[in-house]
Amino acid sequence: xxxxxLIILSFFLFFKQLVADEDLDKGKVIAENICSxxxxxxxxxxxxxxxxxxxxxxxxxxxxxxxxxKDYKSKKLEHHQMSLIADMLSVDDIKNVSKWYSSIKxxxxxxxx
Length: 113
Ligand code: HEC
Description:
By secondary structure, this protein is an all-alpha fold.
């Protein structure tokens, strides 16, 4: 009996991982096609001419990104570029692209060394 439970559990975990990887891939495609012009595909906003006004997204908290994008979409936050961009995204797109940018790892250097 315990073997069946373990087999079902590992199948479930495997499937869950597959779906998570697929969401991450979809998020990367959105980042490449839409966001990268301003935020970079790796979330470092040093590509555009007006980059001082564009925030970095690398390693930002996933749920923070989701909330911000939903706020631009609902017009709770208004910005001439981001409101238009967020309007084009579905809720799934927002979740996937937030997963992408939040999953990029950075290293924090201790400035008190
Ligand atoms: C045309 C340039 C441009 C594009 C393309 C763009 N952004 Fe932005 N984004 C900005 C600017 C400028 C801001 C700062 C807006 C402000 O000051 O309110 C911003 C802000 C944001 C914020 C809020 C960050 C924070 O800490 O407040 C998020 C999240 C974000 N963008 C995600 C995205 C995603 C995801 C995409 C792609 C689907 C995208 N952006 C595409 C220019 C852009």
